[in-house]
Amino acid sequence: MAGTDIKSDADQKVGRTYPLLSPREVEALIAEGRSLIIVDQHVLKVDAWLPYHPGGNKAIQHMVGRDATDEVNGLHSAEARAMMERYRIGRIEGRWQNLLPPIQGGRFRPRVVDTDKTSPSLSSSDSSRTASPVSDKDVRQRRPAAAAAAAATPPPANTLPPDGLAHLDALTKQEISLDLSKYPALDAATQSAIIAKYRLLHARIQSEGLFDCNYTAYAIECVRYALLFALVLAFLRIKWFATSAFFLGVFWHQLVFTAHDAGHMGITHSFQVDTAIGIFVADFLGGLSLGWWKRSHNVHHIVTNAPEHDPDIEHLPFFAVSHRLLGGLRSTYYERVMEYDAAARFFVGLQAYLYHFILLFGRFNLYRLSWEYILLGLGPRKGPAAWHRWLELAGQVFFWTWFGYGILYCSVDTNWQRAVYVLVSHVVTAPLHLQITLSHFAMSTADLGPDESFPQRMLRTTMDVDCPAWLDWFHGGLQFQAIHHLYPRLPRHNLRRTQRLVQGFCEEAGIPYALYGFVDGNREVLGRLGEVARQAAILKKCQGVVVRGEMGAH
C-alpha cells in the first residue's frame, strides 16, 4: 500500500511501520463492521477492546469514524494511551474530517465488488472524506434483514402529528442558527486553530504542575469526612436522630467529590489505585456504584448535552431540557425510545416548579441504577476491570450492613423514626444533584455536527458557577464544570488556579465562557425548563387541532 516506507515519529518509537490509509478505506472498513477511531494521526481498530473498556463500550462507539485524540488524552492516563498503540492498523495524513458514528445514525459506503475479479475493491471516489448520504433503497439492498425488521416495527405510540414534528424541526433549526451566530465558524481552518490553542493550553497547564494532585488538600478532606461521621455517631448515640441523619447526608454529599476525582484518575493518576479508592468511597461508604457512574459519565463527557445520547440529560418523565425530547427520541445509551407519555406530559408541564423538589429524591434513583449495573453485569466481565464488579458487590453488602442494619435497624428506635432518618439523610444530599444539573440544563443542546471541535463543544454545552474561594469546599469542584470538561483528569483542588488560563484561551479562541453566579445559574435553568414546558403546551394544542380535524373529517 502507498506510503508504507514512511515512518512518523510515533512509529519510530515503537519500531513499527503502519500503512497509509485513505479516508475512503477507513470508511469501507467501518461499513464492514469494524470499530475504527483516529488517535494521534493513527487509525485504531478497537473491536477487541470494546468488551473490556472500563468506561463502557458506548463511549468508544460514539467516537467511531472520528478523530478522538483530544477525548482520549483528556480521559485517559499515559499508561492507557500507551496501551492503545497495540490497536494501530494504519495512519492518516493531514487533518481528519470526522464522520458520523454508526451509533448516531451514520451510514458508510462499503467496498464495491467487481464481478470480473476475485477480490473486492474500493469505489472510484477514494478521495471522499465523508460518509455520503445513501438512499433508502440502497440501505434495503445492503441490509435487507434490518430493513425488514424496521419496517415491521410499529411507530412509537407518542408519534407527533405532522404539525407537531414541523414545529419541533423549526425549533431545532432556530437553536442551531443561534449557536452558529454565537460561536466560532465550523470550517476546518477555524476549528483546527481552536484545537491547536487548546493543546497549547494543555501543555501550559502541565508545565505549571496543575495536573499534580495536592495531597495536603486531600488530608484536609479526610479530616472533614472523619469529623462529619463522628457527628453522625455522636448524635445517634444520644438519640438525636434527625440531627444524626442531617450530618450523614452532608457526609455523603462531601464523599461524592472524592469519588468523582477517583473516577477520573485525578488523585494518584493510576487506574487501578484510583478505582479502588473510588469504589471504597462510593460503594462501601455511600452505597452507589462507581462502575455505573463511570459507564454513564464517560458517555456524558463524549456527547455532552446531546438529547439522544447523553444519559445525564435523559430524565423523562420528570424533566425535558430540550424540545427534541418531546418528540419521542430513541436513547442510544438506554437503547429504548424515551416515551413522551401521559406521565411525561404532566411532569414536563410543571417542571420549572417541581425542579428543586424532585431533586430532593435523586439519591433513591441512584441506588436503583447502581444495583441494576452490578446485578446485570453491565460492566466489563473480562480484562483489567473485571474484578471491580465483585469489589463493588462486596461494597454494597458492607454499606447496607452498616447503614441498613447497624444504624437504621439496631440504633433507631421506631419505624417512624427510621423513615424520618432515611428521608432527612437523603434529602440533605439534594445540593449535589443541583450542582450536577446546574452546569448543563441551561446550556445548548443543539447538534452542530461532527466538524465541531472537542473544546468548542465542551464550552458550548457547559457552564461554570461563580463563587468565593471559601465556598469551594461546599461545591467540591463541581462549580468548575466547563474547565473539568476540557481537562477531566485535572485534580479539583487545582481547578480555580486553572480558571484564569481557560478564560484567556476562550478570549483568544473567540469562544464564549459561560460563568454564572449560583442564583443566576438557577434562574437560567428554571428559564430553560419553563421554555420547554411552553413548547410542550404548544405541541399539545397542535395535537388537539389535528385530532379535532380528523374527527371533523369523519
Largest sheet: 3 strands, antiparallel
Count of individual beta strands = 7
SSE-based structural type: mainly alpha
Rg: 25 Å
The N- and C-terminal alpha carbons lie at a distance of 67 Å
**Number of H- or I-type helical stretches:** 24
Strand line-up of the largest beta sheet: 1-2-3
Average the pLDDT over all residues and give the rounded result.
87
Give the quaternary arrangement of the chains: single chain
What share of residues is helical?
Answer: 55-70%
Shape: globular
Determine the strand fraction and express it as a percent band. under 5%
Q: Would you identify the regions where 5 or more consecutive residues have pLDDT less than 50?
A: 1-13, 117-121, 123-158
Short descriptors:
554 residues; mainly alpha; 3-stranded antiparallel β-sheet; two-stranded antiparallel ribbon; 24 helices; 7 strands; globular; lipid metabolism; Cyt_B5-like_heme/steroid_sf; EC 1.14.19.18; oxidoreductase
Structure description:
By secondary structure, the protein is mainly alpha-helical. The protein has a domain at 191-509. It is built from 24 helices and 7 strands. The strands form 3 sheets. It has a 3-stranded antiparallel beta sheet with strand order 1-2-3. Strands 4-5 form a two-stranded antiparallel ribbon. A hairpin with a 2-residue loop joins β1 (36-39) and β2. α6 (136-142) packs across α7 (144-152), α9 (188-207) runs antiparallel to α23 (495-509) and α12 (271-285) packs parallel to α17 (388-409). The longest helix has 36 residues, at 518-553. The protein starts with 8 loop residues before the first helix and ends with a helix. The model is unreliable at 1-13, 117-121 and 123-158 (pLDDT under 50). Residues 18-93 form the Cytochrome b5 heme-binding domain. One of its GO terms (biological process) is sphingolipid metabolic process.
